[in-house]
Design a protein that fits this description.
Blueprint: H1 2-29, E1 34-37, E2 40-46, E3 49-51, E4 54-55, E5 59-62, E6 67-70, E7 75-80, E8 85-88, E9 93-96, E10 100-111, E11 118-122, E12 125-129, E13 133-139, E14 142-149, E15 151-155, E16 161-165, E17 168-173, E18 176-181, E19 208-212, E20 223-224, E21 226-237, E22 240-250, E23 257-264, E24 270-278, E25 281-284, E26 286-290, E27 303-306, E28 311-319, E29 324-334, E30 341-346, E31 357-368, E32 373-376, E33 381-383, E34 386-394, E35 400-405, E36 413-418, E37 428-435, E38 446-452, H2 459-475, E39 481-487, E40 491-493, E41 500-501, H3 504-515, H4 525-534, E42 544-549, H5 560-568, E43 576-582, H6 588-595, E44 601-604, H7 610-621, E45 625-632, E46 637-641, E47 646-649, E48 653-660, E49 667-674, E50 677-688, H8 693-710, H9 715-724, E51 732-735, E52 741-742
Parallel strand pairs: 1-32, 10-11, 21-31, 26-52, 36-50, 38-39, 38-42, 42-43, 43-44
Antiparallel strand pairs: 2-5, 2-7, 3-4, 3-6, 6-9, 7-8, 8-10, 9-10, 10-13, 11-12, 12-15, 13-14, 14-17, 15-16, 17-18, 19-20, 19-23, 21-22, 22-29, 23-28, 24-25, 24-29, 26-51, 27-28, 27-51, 30-35, 31-34, 32-35, 33-34, 36-37, 37-48, 39-40, 39-41, 45-47, 45-49, 46-48, 49-50
């Protein structure tokens, strides 16, 4: 008996020791997650831009100690996490420091963030910015600091501090520092010294509620309610991210108000839910269709409506004096893996004065991507793959950016399935994601700019178009190629007839031609874009056609479909296309449909906005691209979107959606055109489990609704798809009444 017990004890001991050994082995085999803090980001405006010796196209996050350099034609802009923005000129060399930055060569224009005190090391001296802006320069060991606005302090290595007022320059030569008025400042920034974000105009994913006493028709903007708290929870699985933003507002007034809710989300996000909480109880919203031919400026029930690209507008009525109300918005977005990194961004920067948030807490869980490393900004903490940021009396100064280093995978297509409802026709829902191939990058870009000079372009609008082209010429370098066309019923050249590098002679010829332009006759939009596309050489698939005008055709092709068909018949295929809508009466609907999935659609109304628009345009045009991208799927995948070949950025993620009636395809064929001609590539399909099958269905619905809307196939068909898949559109909304229909607010007031 005793022997049996001893053997039993020995067996238990052996099992325990084995378990401990396996646990130690698993711990040793588990990958160590590298944690790194970043404090800034830099964006290429014109190559060449390098970070620590590596070329950068697009945006790169920066830790302390990063060295940023630009080539002879290179320009860039950067933002520190304290809100300080920096414009970087050609042939510059700077280093990010814990306190700010150090300029070793070149020129910078720096604007300090709200509440920030930024230290700038210049030629051995230190400049301190707080609520000011300054231009810095270093050449041959000597430095200058020009105070463009506000006041700043400069301290030389062996001298006392000197205070600079607006319009004064400090000259630094070794230990000597002299201050004198600046007679004339050369503003070399050319539209770059403005608020910016990595994807268009900056906007915050933090909702604001403005308390109104009147209705929308009375034009009463109201006043913003105090933000008691904002709590953000984000979860990333594979390449899907679900974000919930819960914000509590306080009415400090003495009367009931109607809450006018405004919020921005990433432009490609879909809204997964909306709720309003009072006294700790959440009331969840449901999807409703807008009543046809009805509208109201005084909604009496909480609702959330579509208000434009990435913007939301809602109503939260009956907020009592001294009371609080909480809004809850949930949204999905699909993240793009780039160079072995997956980046999640919570947009917190925007135009105007940022709101003050009493208590702010954000939590981003990256464990769903099994990261090898995680980096995060804004001084957040990282623990076990979870990023946390907590602040009191928080004024957002920069986006919260979290980057995960992920395991490299074989080049393939990832497939996500959303099951169809029982008895539903059409098959399951398929989202297929893959990357376009990378291409060898050139230092410059190729642009065919076509200006609308038809009779609808009155002199003031034509002057704005001239200013845009002039700003483009200022921003381009000697490695860039350009041709400029003017079009009404016919197309003619402005300056040289052939595409060529932008040297001094070409710039002068184009500027002289711009000065002689006058409004002409009718407008043939399709032929205009076709001839501009023909001006792009075959060796430049990333070349971009830039249309500048009001988008109103009076002769020739009468619809977007006809124009696209014309472009598709070209030997060179559909070009990479962007548009700048000029004036308040420009047909943005047509221009958006033409450039959809290819390039940016921007707008200007006068000369003042031309320089900023040109910078945005150049930033996009200079990124490498491939043309005629299309995926061939098996016949049992139907209702596939997009339908037409597109020009897409090289090395970036693209999405194809469809309805799957058979088995999951094992392979798909990718077609694209680079400088060597048309290419074909077979991609293995790797199934992945979707974080939420409803989101897979919404992605197909979004593409379907977009197709129906742009093809003018009828509002009814688009609304039916959106309502069934709970997709927020101009004709659907999240409401808290539970009713399937609601009375919308006028689109013009959103």
């Amino acid at each position: 008996m005793i022997r049996v017990n001893l053997y039993g004890l020995l067996g238990i001991l052996i099992i325990a020791l084995a378990a401990v050994g396996l646990w130690k082995l698993s711990v040793a085999a588990a990958p160590t997650v590298d944690v790194r803090a970043t404090i800034a980001e830099v964006q290429t405006v014109h190559p060449e831009l390098s970070v620590d010796g590596q070329g950068v196209r697009g945006v790169r996050r920066l830790p302390v100690g990063s060295r940023v350099t630009t080539g002879n034609d290179g320009r860039a802009r950067a933002r520190l996490d304290d809100g300080t923005t920096i414009v970087i000129d050609r042939a510059s060399d700077l280093t990010i420091t814990e306190a700010g930055l150090r300029l070793d060569k070149g020129r910078l224009f720096v604007q300090s963030g709200p509440g920030a005190k930024t230290q700038l090391d210049v030629a051995g001296a230190k400049a301190f910015l707080a609520g000011a802006s300054a231009a810095l320069g270093v050449a041959e060991g000597k430095g200058t600091v020009f105070c463009a606005s506000g006041e700043l302090t400069v301290r030389a290595s062996t001298e006392a501090e000197h205070r600079l007022s607006s319009g004064e320059t400090a000259s630094i030569d070794g230990a000597t520092l002299t201050v004198a008025p600046e007679l004339a400042f050369d503003d070399w920034t050319r539209g770059m010294a403005v608020p910016w974000s990595v994807s268009g105009p900056p906007r915050r994913a933090v909702g604001e509620v403005w308390g109104r006493l009147g209705d929308l028709a009375e034009g009463d903007p109201g006043s913003p309610l105090a933000i008691r708290s904002t709590t953000v929870h984000a979860t990333v699985v594979h390449e899907m991210a679900l974000t919930e933003v819960r914000t509590t507002y306080f009415n400090a007034g003495s009367t009931d108000v109607t809450g006018d809710f405004r919020m921005a989300v990433p432009a490609a996000a879909t809204i997964a839910g909306f709720a309003v909480a009072r006294q700790g109880s959440d009331q969840e919203g449901t999807m409703a269709e807008a009543e046809r031919d009805k509208s109201t400026t005084t909604p009496y029930q909480p609702q959330l409506e579509w208000a434009g690209e990435g913007w939301l507008r809602g109503v939260v009525p009956f907020i009592s004096p001294g009371g609080t109300v909480t809004t809850v918005v949930r949204y999905f977005e699909w993240l793009d893996p780039v160079d072995g990194r997956l980046q999640y961004r919570l947009p917190l920067t925007g135009t105007g004065t940022p709101p003050r948030i009493g208590e702010f807490f954000a939590r981003v869980n990256m464990n769903g991507v099994r990261p090898l490393g995680v980096s995060a900004g804004l001084g957040s903490t990282v623990s076990d793959g979870v990023v946390s940021l907590r602040r009191s009396d928080f004024t957002p100064s920069a986006d919260l950016v979290v980057e995960a280093v992920v395991r490299p995978e074989p080049r393939s297509a990832r497939a996500y399935i959303g099951q169809a409802d029982p008895g539903e026709e059409g098959g399951d829902y398929l989202v297929l994601r893959a990357e376009t191939p990378s291409v060898e990058t050139s230092e410059g870009t190729t642009l065919a700019v076509v200006m609308d000079v038809s009779g609808s372009m009155e002199p003031a609008l034509l002057d704005a178009s001239r200013a845009l082209v002039e700003a483009l010429l200022e921003g381009l370098g000697s490695s860039d190629r350009i041709v400029v066309l003017a079009a009404d019923q016919s197309v003619r050249h402005v300056g040289p007839k052939d595409m060529g590098p932008l040297d001094g002679a070409r710039r002068k010829s184009i500027l002289e031609g711009l000065g002689s332009l006058q409004p002409g006759s009718a407008s043939d939009l399709g032929r205009t874009i076709e001839q501009a596309a023909d001006a792009i050489p075959k060796d430049a698939p990333a070349g971009m056609v830039v249309y500048v005008g009001d988008g109103r055709a009076t002769v020739g092709d009468s619809s977007v479909d006809e124009i696209k068909a014309r472009l598709a018949r070209r030997a060179g295929g559909v070009p990479r296309l962007s548009a700048v809508a000029v004036g308040p009466l420009a047909d943005r609907y047509v221009l958006s449909a033409l450039v959809r999935g290819s390039g940016p659609m921007l707008s200007i109304s006068d000369r003042q906005g031309a320089a900023t628009t040109a910078v945005h345009l150049l930033t996009e045009a200079l990124r490498p691209a491939v043309a005629d991208v299309q995926v061939t799927l098996p016949p049992d995948v139907e209702r596939v979107y997009p339908r037409e070949p597109r020009a897409l950025l090289a090395g970036t993620t693209f999405t194809v959606v469809g309805r799957l009636k058979g088995e999951m395809p094992r392979q798909v064929t990718l077609h694209y055109r680079n400088a060597a001609g048309m290419k074909t590539e077979t991609l293995t399909v790797r199934p992945r489990t979707a974080m939420d099958v409803r989101e897979v269905r919404r992605r197909w619905a979004s593409a379907r609704v977009e197709e129906l809307a742009f093809r003018v196939a009828g509002r009814e068909a688009a609304t039916d798809v959106a309502y069934h898949e709970k997709l927020l559109t101009p004709w659907t909304a999240w409401v808290l009444t539970g009713d399937p229909r609601y009375v919308p607010t006028p689109l013009s007031t959103r």
